[in-house]
Amino acid sequence: MAHHIYKTKSIILADFDRGESNKVYYMLTRDFGVLAIYAQGVRELKSKLNYSLQVGALSNVDMVRGKEMWRMTSAQHYDDLLQRDDKRLVDFVVRIFALVRRLTHGEERNEKLFDTIFQFLGVLKREKFSVEQLVALEIILNLRILHALGYGTLKKELNQFLNSEINTQTFSDFEQYKRIAVEEVNNALRESHL
Question: Alpha-carbon distance 24 to 125, whole Å?
Fold first, then answer.
């Protein structure tokens, strides 16, 4: 029986070893939402997939629907969105990816969420941020993730940070709303019961 091969862009959120040479990848895909995808033999030295499937990478993935979970047939590395030499940035991205995995369940296409994460990873790759700016950036990104997933009701004064570009002016404007934004994020997380 022939299986239909699905192709999608994905951001690799996490990976877990399974068996001696296999892995399960959690990927935020543009077309299907967050998926758990099984990759057979990917940990073997001869595997070509291994280099295309690093956490924080943008990859084009081909997959088929299996009985229990998706199975990867091929992957092509598109871009490495994570600067692995900066521990602060790696920790920041790991927290963001954990939030996305925590708040998304089942397959549900959400282009807005994908685009939000993709844009922020691009900003992190291009720009250098101070510790204070990274804290503000994380709060803004949390607001955008929660909004993209439909959690919480946003106070009017925070709407300006849902679509604004990230630059020095954004951080300056955000400073006075930081406390309100943290309250909004915490309330939305509490209300989600996740």
Answer: 26
User: Domain spans of the chain?
Assistant: 6-80, 87-192
Collect all residues with Cβ–Cβ distance below 8 Å to 61 and sequence separation of at least 6. Answer: 7, 8, 9, 10, 27, 29, 37, 72, 74, 75
Could you tell me the pTM of the whole model? Answer: 0.86
**CA dihedral for 78, 84, 85, 89, sign (positive or negative):** positive
Cα distance between residue 186 and residue 148, in whole Å? 16
Give the tens place of pLDDT for each residue, 58-112. Answer: 888 999 998 888 999 888 887 776 666 778 888 888 899 999 998 988 788 899 9
6-80 placed in CATH 2.40.50.140: yes
Give the whole-angstrom CA distance, residue 128 versus residue 130.
7
* Position 194 confidence tier, pLDDT thresholds 50, 70, 90: low
